[in-house]
Amino acid sequence: MPLIQLETSCDLSGQDKKQLIVKTLSRLAAEGTGKSERYVMASVRDKVTMTLSGHTDSCALVTIKAIGGLSQAVNQTLTEQITEALENELAIPQKRIYLTFEELAPTHWGWNGKTFG
Predict the structure, then answer these.
(1) Which of 10, 16, 32, 111 has the highest Cβ tally under 10 A?
(2) Is 56 inside any structural domain?
(3) pTM to 2 decimals?
(4) Which residues form the domain of 12?
C-alpha cells in the first residue's frame, strides 16, 4: 500500500530493463504519496496485447492504488513523473500512456494476515 502496476505492449525481455522500471515506479509511488517505500508493491507486465486510439504502437497503462496519499495535486505530479520516466526509459510517447488512480478504504486492503482498518 500503495500499489503501482504497469502494463505495456513493449517487450522488456532484458531483466535489467524490467528491474530498472519496477524500481523507478516503486520510488516514484513512495515519494509521490508520502508513504514509505517499505510498503510499496510495484509490478510490470510487458508484451501485453494493447491498443490506444485504434493503433498498436507502443503504449502503457499505469494503475496506482493507495490508502490515503492521493489527491489532485499528487496525481498530477505522479502523472508527469511517470509518463516522463516511461518515455525516457521505454520510448513510449507520453500521449500513449494512461494512468488511473484509486483510493481504497483501509478495510479494503489486507496485508500480513489482517486489513489496515
Answers:
(1) 32
(2) yes
(3) 0.94
(4) 3-109
